[in-house]
Amino acid sequence: NAANASNAFPVGAHVVLRLTDGTVLSLEIVKPFLPFTKCLVYVVRPESSSISDNLPSEVILKIYDPRYIDERTQSKKYGSSRVRTHVWTLEAEMEAARYRQEIAEGQRPDDFTVHLLYRDGDAHPFLWEEDFYRYLKESSENEVAAFRRLTSLQGTVIPKFYGSGNVIPPPGTRAIEPPAVLLEYISGSMTLADYHKGLGVSERANVIPSIFRPLVDAVRRFKELGVYHGDISGKTILVSSAPSSSQANPEGGTLTRAVLINFGRAGVREDRESEEDWE
């Protein structure tokens, strides 16, 4: 359940990631970034292999796993009713997978809408699983598409993108293979929101306002590159004391790099979209 997300993969555990080209990586969990919200986010250490030789010693693994999405435990008001917590079960996940399979095989129409969740009392649990699954699948696709469009900015104002794929769960434990991405780990960084709150800094580092200029200039280029972010805030901007991932981050000191993260709500211009539509 979402409440147990902190135990999803404990430190020292190994995660198997199958990349889109079919190669398989084993990743050791080094550190989680808590609290998890929509995704599980970890620092991981790739185990030695011919593929991992092309990766840094530590990278970010971001897993879009509906089992642990925070929407399960957030009480929201819809009209006069309060939505209860939606507990994950393997049975509901399996039924949602069958539902998608029937759609894929043409046995039933794809008539799923969020309105099904609030019609005639409590929706069947598999419909909630389907909603969470679709939401995170779309988020992962948005993130991958945005990073592919923004290749020229990777490693500076956005993290480097190392690949995407699916996490392979132990046999019999899941009905899905959650999507995941591998990104640059910017050590010693914090969100701009946490910096302003003074969190995680014993000795407040200095922020040079000019570090945001490259980021602002890059965001202005997003439109011509065919991308919009959709969620820019202090929570999605990292500040770091190293200008690139190859340099060590000293404690405290001066923050010299601003990096935009979290492209799950991003949009990418389709080839068929006209200039007017993209506006």
Automatic annotation (TrEMBL):
<dbReference type="GO" id="GO:0005524">
    <property type="term" value="F:ATP binding"/>
</dbReference>
<protein>
    <recommendedName>
        <fullName>Protein kinase domain-containing protein</fullName>
    </recommendedName>
</protein>
<dbReference type="InterPro" id="IPR011009">
    <property type="entry name" value="Kinase-like_dom_sf"/>
</dbReference>
<dbReference type="InterPro" id="IPR000719">
    <property type="entry name" value="Prot_kinase_dom"/>
</dbReference>
<dbReference type="GO" id="GO:0004672">
    <property type="term" value="F:protein kinase activity"/>
</dbReference>
<feature type="domain" description="Protein kinase">
    <location>
        <begin position="72"/>
        <end position="279"/>
    </location>
</feature>
